[in-house]
Design brief:
The structure is a single chain. The protein folds into 3 domains: 124 residues; 62 residues; 63 residues, no CATH class. α1 links the parallel β4 and β5. It is built from 6 helices and 8 strands; from the N terminus they run ββββαβββαβαααα. The protein has 263 residues and is of the alpha+beta class. It is elongated and about 90 Å long. The strands form 2 sheets. Strands 2-3-4-5-6-7 form a 6-stranded mixed beta sheet, with helices on both faces. The protein is 55% helix and 15% strand.
């Protein structure tokens, strides 16, 4: 990533039965992405009407070509079959009349205005959209890597250096050696009692053993019926996607409500 390359954030707004996310163009693209996430089911005609309405609205705010796509709650592209020939809408402002053009067909780049290729111009247009340069992103990544290295060294010291230090002290101290030996005998005795059933396992260990047994049981049945496992996995992923979409919608509603109250 070049130091002067610009990456924009996105804007999200609640619309009741759906929420919208607007993302300015990435480098080399001629259009922004307008994503409608449908939280409550509506017929296809209603979705199409909102896609067109949103496209006009966002073009009036930012004169940059748009690709609008609707997604269902499980994060899959919503099919507009039977109402529109394709599942996405391309919209832009006509250069002479400055009127919005809504296109429900596949078009080439040569049809779209190339204004979005000018990144400096985009910075002037999207003044209220957060953005970062390549240099800033690299600095953040370097900071995270440095933090991870510090964490690794802490783990290394605790897992290697400390035991090594104890071993050295044990070598030089007969008393410490006896204590360590006694501790080892006690641990061995406790383990033997647990193996023979005379000493019950701790609650934490019992929970872990039960969890391990449960995982082994699940793994056994997954191997016996891999097709069912794939279906179950897909359903779990779908349910999690729906939960994330609904949580995002609720968060946006709360944010909108809070902003209205403050206003």
């Amino acid at each position: 990533m070049a130091s002067d390359e610009i990456r924009f954030g996105s804007l999200k707004e609640d619309r009741g039965w759906y929420y919208v996310e607007y993302s300015p163009p990435v480098t080399g693209f001629r259009f922004s992405i307008l994503r409608l996430s449908i939280v409550e089911s509506r017929d296809t005609e209603a979705v199409v009407a909102e896609m067109e309405s949103e496209a006009r609205e966002w073009l009036s705010r930012y004169p940059v070509p748009i690709m609008a796509i609707a997604f269902s709650a499980d994060n899959s592209v919503l099919s507009l079959s039977g109402v529109r020939p394709i599942n996405y809408l391309i919209a832009w402002l006509e250069s002479e009349s400055n009127e919005p053009v809504l296109c429900w067909e596949i078009i080439g780049d040569d049809v779209l205005p190339d204004i979005a290729l000018n990144r400096d111009w985009l910075v002037e247009v999207f003044t209220d959209v957060p953005h970062k340069t390549g240099a800033e992103i690299r600095a953040e990544v370097a900071g995270r890597v440095a933090s991870q290295r510090v964490g690794w060294w802490l783990v290394f010291v605790w897992a290697v250096a400390v035991p090594f230090g104890v071993a050295v002290l044990e070598w030089w101290s007969d008393l410490l050696g006896l204590l360590v030996l006694g501790y080892a005998f006690v641990k061995a005795a406790i383990h033997a009692l647990r193996l023979t059933g005379h000493l019950p396992s701790s609650a934490r260990k019992s929970e872990k053993e039960a969890e391990d047994l449960k995982m082994q049981h699940h793994h056994y049945h997954c191997e016996r019926n891999p097709e069912a496992f794939v279906r179950l996995k897909a359903e779990n992923l779908r349910r999690e996607a729906i939960e994330r979409t609904k949580a995002e919608a609720l968060a946006l509603k709360a944010k909108t409500s809070s902003a209205s109250s403050d206003g």
